[in-house]
């Protein structure tokens, strides 16, 4: 259910959304009115059914019942804001779930570059991109920040397919021109990389002129894959076009060492013509992006596992954001990002990313659960006061919705149920309650086998959310 | 599909099982013959279909086709040994997936003891136990080492239900009599604890005289919940009856400190009457169990996260085994167990446990995946040579089958497909391949939406196993 609705709609039933970082709000017997443009015009906590709506809400809105479509959540169902995947490589989807024993830099050469390169074939690209959109939507992702490949034609195809499927998306044509990139898969020059990016921007502006659903995003792959000149051009382009930026940062210790080696102060100074800036940044990973104008309040930095205090300060000062990708960070043995400290001590906006295919799953709920688990590893490895590193279920659901909305630049537009926001939601079923209190035996269970856990009926709403929403991460049938 | 088969059977198709710790064997176009007692009498790698079987295998076995039932795996299906859950609290199943922010000792008081206590009610117990058996079977668990509760009647009910469902099980009546146990849920005395355990043993011997499917297991909850006298009695009882033992060890640092405090050398010396032994064990957690005769080659120790070198040596010397429960260890922020080092450096047998409800899922595949991920946390926290801490997909599947078989005392009987073993298997479907190579678009996907990942058709068998078997952990429909 994304924004575009031809008709006024009234949703009735149970709504759950994040009120604050650590607080979910449960709106039972409530109503949300959505106008013909897809905007929420009323959230009514005292209007649980059609009769009440006729009596109070419709007259208040001045709506005729005949013009309104009604959608009622059933018993055991609730509306939840659509999830936001702040970091996903659409082009790597076929490799999701293939656990390598390698770490980041090997992984790219063995698994990633050959697959991405092969998606210059529009037939194969259509097959892969259609599937990843379908799967992420099935998992409740109504908005995704996608990396495509360096290929212009099939990057544009990804934008087309998102539009067709009604999935909100930031679509990035990947830029990479450095020696780290293989000969068979790289931009011929910084100019060529910029030019190709401009073509994708122009295309997306043409197919979605108001960028209601699909927006281009400037995508330097990551510093080691880009020349200084390419990053400089992309920084300027982002500013000129007022566009968001996505890239990777501080995922893995070897990668960090590589950035230091590739961009010593002298290189930064030469590239930027600003010696004092180059010196000041001391070739930190964040400093390199900042030197090229890539560290902005519209920048999504994936990972941020090993950021130094000075980098954290710089990122916070620029208002740049972090996409936390716990499934990937664990799979590739990158490390455990101290997310609660980023949020609370540094005030850095954070969302969740699946990072397919470094991450093994296209599900943001899977990322949410792993975020809970990884935060416990941060906790027991913290030198002191580890308890405050633990993310709660409420907090990871905030990251998956409101946190993500800030990261992709849609704060106040999606991620929650508030007047003035877009109606961007998923209908979640908790599944059948297993029998009823006092009932029993094996014979009463004929369905509801989906998922890892069962709801017995006596659980509180927060417990039900934890059990069925966080632990049972299979997709809804589409 | 568990042991009892009324008729001779011939299974045809693809079989996958662990050949060694790091090696899966893929038997395509093969046949496995199972006699009327459920035993594998032939594994034929050159017999892929019925015609070939008629020609070669049946004559060799001297079997008449009319007496044989044939089962052929379909395209995209394969037979895999049933999973073994070496540590699961059947009585805590309703709490699975409720993430607390607490750690072990709080968790017990808040979530666990009240629920376990309530299962003295046979109606409620039947409802919970029937469900956990059904769910674990749906997840491919054909054998489980269960903790029930202190209640005799409903522990016996759990054994009955396992028998009815055909699930192999070790069923443990929980023993706990110390001050740590709440007044509403404890054994009145060491004698009472022993007596109740004897009743459960007698009952199980009566309902399954040869212990083909269900066996009793001596279950002192964990050292802090038991008096020295109770543990001493249980150690003797296990020896006298030649029974397996299960308990917890070294899960959490506070718990370890508590054991040290509760069982100083003087207490051990008094309880065992053996001062030198007490001194020698220095009140380590493993030493406490050993002092009471509870550390044997039939002992399953759940967790073992923080074991010291001397404890590891003691455990290895006694031939005791570890149940690795990664979902639980992460959820409860207990720590990350260095499993590969236990296996390879210390030669300690290890299996996987879901540890419901410290663990959030009754799926051994979920535990397998988390074992992979947690091993990477061990890796990047290891002071040096961390690479060898990484568990591969092949290794966690070994833990889930052959490793588990050793832990529950069924080595050579279940866990693989070898002549002389029981036929104890699950039929796994890899699901529909997404279109075909060169095919494309959104329109060709009408089903196969289950799971987190898709198989595109070009993947190798090891990659398919990783994608669909490890990453898509929803249960098979029953």
From TrEMBL, chains A, B:
<dbReference type="Pfam" id="PF01979">
    <property type="entry name" value="Amidohydro_1"/>
</dbReference>
<feature type="domain" description="Amidohydrolase-related">
    <location>
        <begin position="80"/>
        <end position="430"/>
    </location>
</feature>
<comment type="function">
    <text>Catalyzes the hydrolytic deamination of guanine, producing xanthine and ammonia.</text>
</comment>
<dbReference type="InterPro" id="IPR032466">
    <property type="entry name" value="Metal_Hydrolase"/>
</dbReference>
<keyword id="KW-0479">Metal-binding</keyword>
<dbReference type="GO" id="GO:0046098">
    <property type="term" value="P:guanine metabolic process"/>
</dbReference>
<keyword id="KW-0862">Zinc</keyword>
<dbReference type="GO" id="GO:0008892">
    <property type="term" value="F:guanine deaminase activity"/>
</dbReference>
<comment type="similarity">
    <text>Belongs to the metallo-dependent hydrolases superfamily. ATZ/TRZ family.</text>
</comment>
<comment type="pathway">
    <text>Purine metabolism; guanine degradation; xanthine from guanine: step 1/1.</text>
</comment>
<protein>
    <recommendedName>
        <fullName>Probable guanine deaminase</fullName>
        <ecNumber>3.5.4.3</ecNumber>
    </recommendedName>
</protein>
<dbReference type="InterPro" id="IPR006680">
    <property type="entry name" value="Amidohydro-rel"/>
</dbReference>
<dbReference type="GO" id="GO:0008270">
    <property type="term" value="F:zinc ion binding"/>
</dbReference>
<dbReference type="InterPro" id="IPR051607">
    <property type="entry name" value="Metallo-dep_hydrolases"/>
</dbReference>
<dbReference type="InterPro" id="IPR011059">
    <property type="entry name" value="Metal-dep_hydrolase_composite"/>
</dbReference>
<keyword id="KW-0378">Hydrolase</keyword>
<dbReference type="GO" id="GO:0005829">
    <property type="term" value="C:cytosol"/>
</dbReference>
């Amino acid at each position: 259910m994304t924004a575009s609705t031809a008709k006024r709609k009234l949703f009735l039933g149970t709504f759950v959304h994040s009120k604050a970082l650590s607080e979910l709000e449960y709106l039972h017997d409530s109503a949300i009115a959505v106008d013909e443009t897809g905007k929420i015009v009323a959230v009514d906590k005292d209007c649980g059914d059609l009769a009440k709506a006729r009596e109070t809400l419709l007259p208040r809105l001045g709506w005729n019942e005949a013009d309104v479509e009604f959608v009622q959540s059933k018993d055991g169902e609730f509306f939840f804001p659509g999830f936001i995947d702040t970091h996903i490589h659409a082009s790597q989807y076929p490799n999701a779930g293939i656990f390598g024993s390698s770490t980041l830099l090997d992984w790219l050469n063995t698994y990633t570059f050959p697959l991405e390169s092969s998606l210059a074939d529009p037939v194969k690209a259509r097959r892969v991109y259609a599937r990843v959109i379908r799967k992420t939507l099935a998992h409740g992702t109504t908005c995704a920040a996608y990396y495509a490949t360096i290929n212009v034609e099939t990057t544009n195809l990804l934008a087309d397919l998102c539009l067709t499927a009604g999935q909100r998306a930031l679509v990035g044509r990947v830029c990479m021109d450095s020696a780290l990139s293989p000969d068979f898969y790289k931009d011929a020059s910084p100019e060529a990389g910029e030019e190709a990016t401009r073509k994708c921007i122009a295309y997306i502006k043409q197919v979605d002129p108001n960028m209601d659903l699909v927006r281009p995003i400037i995508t330097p792959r990551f510093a080691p894959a880009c020349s200084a000149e390419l990053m400089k051009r992309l920084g300027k382009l982002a500013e000129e076009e007022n566009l968001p930026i996505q890239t990777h940062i501080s995922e893995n210790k070897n990668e960090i060492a590589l950035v230091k080696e590739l961009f010593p102060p002298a290189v930064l100074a030469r590239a930027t013509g600003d010696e004092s800036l180059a010196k000041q940044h001391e070739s930190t990973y964040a400093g390199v992006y900042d030197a090229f104008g890539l560290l902005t309040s519209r920048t999504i930095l994936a990972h941020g596992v090993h950021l130094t205090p000075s980098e954290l300060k710089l990122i916070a000062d620029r208002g740049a954001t972090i996409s936390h990708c716990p499934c990937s960070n664990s799979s590739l043995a990158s490390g455990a990002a101290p997310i609660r400290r980023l949020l609370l001590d540094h005030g850095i906006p954070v969302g969740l990313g699946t990072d397919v295919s470094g991450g093994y799953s296209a599900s943001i709920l899977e990322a949410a659960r792993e975020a809970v688990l990884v935060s416990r590893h941060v906790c027991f490895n913290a030198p002191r006061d580890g308890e405050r590193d633990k993310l709660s279920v409420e907090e990871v659901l905030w990251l998956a919705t409101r946190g993500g909305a800030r990261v992709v630049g849609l704060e106040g537009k999606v991620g929650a149920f508030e007047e003035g926001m877009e109606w961007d939601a998923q209908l979640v079923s908790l599944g059948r309650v297993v029998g009823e209190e006092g009932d029993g035996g094996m014979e009463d269970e004929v369905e509801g086998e989906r998922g890892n856990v069962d709801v017995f009926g006596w659980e509180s709403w927060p417990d039900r959310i934890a059990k069925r929403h966080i632990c049972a991460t299979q997709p809804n049938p589409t």
